[in-house]
Write a structure and sequence with these properties.
Layout: H1 3-12, H2 29-42, E1 45-48, E2 51-53, E3 57-62, H3 64-70, H4 74-92, E4 94-95, E5 101-106, E6 115-120, E7 184-190, E8 193-196, E9 201-205, E10 212-213, E11 224-227, E12 233-236, E13 243-245, E14 248-250, E15 252-254, E16 260-263, E17 266-274
Helix pairs in contact: 1-4, 2-4
Length: 275
């Protein structure tokens, strides 16, 4: 039996139907569970031949109506979701740097039925990867500051093991690395039109409130956003049809000069250059 099916059965079997109201919300807990699995897969970091580390601190952002429905059960639901992540990691042979936490947060910019997942890797007190079957321990971890994207994990104290690498960490000059010059121009091209990226984030969607409006019936009102920094990324915002980056269906991906993002039937080309 699959991890998601077992998770769903555990929820249904909880005493006195605790989660009866939860399943009336637009966002189903099993959807969130699937998104957490994808978040692990998309952010898995290979340390060595025997060890692949995945995030252990997750933020699930919900629309105001969905948050109101789910928040009374946030503690128990968070524990169940953390247990599901632990089961999935065991199945995939992933490990963690600390105890697994899943938090629910309210996001005023999301419509009912939409959600997004953010994650980060937080090291425990000994900064040693935790096996997925081991009991959770260590202090609780606060969610990242509101409005800021999660930061990739840095090397643990004492240095990283041989062969380790971290999300977004690329040697200067490596393929896909951002130019070293601080003055980097970034823009996107849609149907021959160029849109300069001048802010830390750029939201793309069908809504007139999006930073760049994409007139495509297959595009959600707030479909995805591009976040710039040392490592530019594109993040799906809980869209209906998702995003495809360089031919791969994903919810979050690192961008390089020339990356192609497909939303609906529209192709967006990300560009960056020094100068």
């Amino acid at each position: 039996m699959g991890v998601l099916k077992r998770f769903e059965q555990r929820l249904e079997g909880l005493v006195n139907g605790t989660f009866a109201k939860v399943f009336k919300s637009e966002v189903q807990p099993v959807e969130i569970a699937g998104a957490l699995q994808r978040e692990c897969d998309n952010n898995a970091t290979i340390w060595n031949r025997e060890r692949t580390v995945v995030p252990n601190d997750f933020i699930v952002e919900l629309s105001a109506p969905d948050y109101e429905r789910l928040s009374p059960y946030s503690g128990q639901l968070g524990d169940e979701l953390a247990g599901m992540v632990r089961d999935y990691a065991k199945q995939q042979r992933y490990t963690f740097m600390g105890s697994i936490k899943v938090h629910l947060e309210r996001a005023e910019d999301l419509d009912t039925g939409l959600y997004r997942v953010r994650s980060r890797t937080l090291a425990g007190s000994h900064s040693q990867p935790q096996q997925p079957g081991a009991p959770a321990g260590g202090p609780g971890y606060p969610p990242p500051p509101s409005g800021l994207p999660p930061m990739p994990a840095g090397p643990p104290p004492g240095g990283a093991p041989a062969g380790a690498h971290f999300p977004g960490a690329r040697p200067p000059g490596a393929p896909g690395a951002a130019p070293s010059n601080a003055q980097v121009r970034r823009w996107i091209e849609i149907n021959g039109n160029r849109h300069q990226i001048s802010q830390p984030t750029m939201v793309l969607g069908r809504s007139t409130e999006a930073d760049v409006r994409v007139d495509d019936p297959g595009v959600s009102r707030r479909h995805c956003e591009i976040r710039v920094g040392p490592t530019p990324v594109v993040q799906d915002l809980g869209s209906t049809n998702g995003i495809v980056v360089d031919g791969q269906h994903t919810t979050r991906a690192t961008l390089r000069d020339g990356s192609r993002i497909v939303v609906g039937s529209t192709t967006i080309v990300y560009r960056q250059a020094e100068g």
